[in-house]
Amino acid sequence: MSSTILQEKTVLFIDGSNFYAAARALNMDIDYARMRAYFAHDTNLLRACYYTALPEDQEYSPLRPLIDWLDYNGYSVISKLTREFTDPDTGKRRVKGNMDMEIALDMLRLAPHIDHTILFSGDGDFCRLLEDVQGTGVRVTVVSTTRTSPPMVADSLRRMADNFVEMESIREHIVRPTRPQSDSADTETSDESA
Question: What is the Cα gyration radius of the chain?
Answer without folding.
Answer: 20
